[in-house]
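yo, Adenosylhomocysteinase is done. seq:
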Amino acid sequence: MDYDVKDMSLADQGKLKIEWAEATMPVLRLIRKRFEREQPFKGIRATACLHVTTETANLMKTLKAGGADVRLCASNPLSTQDDVAAALVRHEGIPTFAVKGEDNKTYYQHIESAIAHKPHLSMDDGADVVSHLHSKRKDLLRNVIGGTEETTTGVIRLRSMAEKKVLKFPVISVNDADTKHMFDNRYGTGQSTMDGIVRATNRLVCGSTLVVAGYGWCGRGIATRARGMGANVIVTEIDPLKGLEAVMDGFRVMPMDEAAPLGDFFVTVTGNLKVIRGEHFAAMKDGAIVCNSGHFNVELDIPALEKLSKKKLAVRSGVDQYTLKNGRRVSLLGEGRLVNLATAEGHPSSVMDMSFANQALGAEYIVKNYKKLEKKVYPVPADIDKEISRLKLAGMGVSIDKLTKEQVKYLASWEMGT
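structure:
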């Protein structure tokens, strides 16, 4: 079997971690049991480019249980858990191409290895496989029947491709599912980002000023978790509606120019580039800590930070301290990559249970319906979203009410008024 992982001796350790995560992923377990019976992916080759974590491992096991010939590569050079990658190869027989800290050249070599079996399905977190197929490996496009996309950044890229009529197959936007973005982005990113900051720095959040750039679902989660830890939270935004929402939620809102001198911690979650630029780094107080929890590290203008600096020092694992020419020090976490994965372990498995249930069912939907779908980005069907919610509540031991016949009739009626 073809693979590239750091150290196969870590496989047993990775297997235990995968099993630990699986214990709080009841929805995916139920889907796997059905897939084992029905084999919806029999004869289907799938390439997954996702963060190689314990939760992803359970998704890969689910796809394989459904009959898929699956290959996995990393969607970020710093997010791979090397023991998990080894376990997938040794214990699950899944070709995996991922090494934490891999350079850019290796990253794209791993994508090439992952698509070497000529996939029918792509499964992305950031749209790198789709982009690579459309730019470098157009010869493989004729095999692809569709794909799924996990994150906001990838959906933005794919919608741009669809609008320009260059997207060659349909893609399900897992990120648009309520059971993904309302939970994964808000609660998962919120907790795991703060976890990454604390693990990397061991600094006290309580009493500090934390600046969140972007008030989408991820930004809301981070701002809420930071406030819960005692931080004074500032939000920066470019959307007046989201800015207004942040104000109404009790946060201070201002431009980054005004926030830069005030913050002790800075987190970007916008999906855009150069959100924190040279003029902002230059204005920061001595000791400021900067990180990114968006998909790509372009949210921080790192070349500008390097240009402003006279010295760079790795002061802790995952912490690079830049001494600026003005004498102030600014620390960058995780090389500006997703801090929740670069310096921590990513989202809790109970949250990823819903996200990866969407991935699994979205992939099944593509296989069953691709002949009827146009070459564009589709939301997760509403019935899938509701079914995942139902399964999750059942897995948590939570019951909800049902409409009575009288209530059903009332909601369907226009005759019954006040």
